[in-house]
Amino acid sequence: MDSMEKEMKQTIGGRHLILASASPRRLAIMHENGYAPEVIPADIEEQIPSFLTPEEAVMHLALSKALAVKKRLAARDTEEAAPLPASLIVGADTIVVSNRKILGKPEDKDDARKMLRDLSGITHQVLTGVAMAVTDTDSTICFCEVTHVTFRDLPKQELEAYLDTNEPYDKAGGYGIQGTFSQYVEKTRGDINNVIGFPWQRFLFEAQRFPTA
Asked: What's the rounded Cα separation, in Å, for the pair 111 and 21?
């Protein structure tokens, strides 16, 4: 751990901060804002019940991640000689929605091509669900942040060149707004960090609803 990391905060509201996600983009946003959480990926099966709205679905996935890590910590707590510190566990999930249809991470190149063609020249929504669970109470907090993103028309040759990079395949909707694809974004309305994967300001506001540990 370098000196910069040592200066970063590892607690929030008196609780140890845990990110229940392996997303390097979410971790980078926390680092940029002065926090260095412990990272414990949830490793859950990301299944969405068909009856949920996109807003409900993304919060469902985020809460499933947070609670999975809380359960793992509870088991670890019984094995430790000293009790683990009270922790705030943060789960998050991001999806792209166009005409109320959920677009997750593309399965392959053809899937990414179809997604981006469908999004070409129109406005869609990026939804990030965030869920927080604390280990010292049964309280949880969930919310969904929405950002509207408009693409300009995507020329076929440029789209194919983009599909030949590694960028589309680990991101909802098949694009990363912080990468080379930013040149095709005409405008955004809302928090751009939400599109990257974590709405930091909304998270700070909502986290304050938990009583201090």
From this structure: 24
SS3 149: strand
115 neighbors 103 (Cβ within 8 angstroms): yes
Going from the C-alpha of 169 to that of each of 110, 133, 142, 155, 166, the distances in angstroms are: 11, 30, 27, 19, 6
Beta-bridge mates of residue 101: 98
7: DSSP letter: H
**From 93, 108, 110, 136, active-site residue:** 93
Q: What is the pLDDT of residues 35-83, one digit of tens each?
A: 999 999 998 887 888 899 999 999 999 999 999 999 999 988 677 667 7
Closest CA to 83 of 213, 209, 204, 207: 213
- Is the pLDDT confidence value at 4 over 80? no
93 is catalytic: yes
Whole-number pLDDT of residue 37: 97
User: What are the tens digits of pLDDT across the range 106-149?
Assistant: 999 999 999 999 999 999 999 999 999 999 999 999 999 999 99
How far, in Å, CA of 9 to CA of 7, rounded?
7
Quote the CA–CA distance of 120 and 153 in Å, as a whole number: 5
What is the identity of the amino acid at 52?
L
Tokens of 20: 């229940």
**DSSP bridge partners of 188:** 149
DSSP-derived letter for residue 31 is H
C-alpha 202/C-alpha 182 separation (Å) is 23
The SS3 call for residue 133 is: strand
pTM for the structure as a whole = 0.90
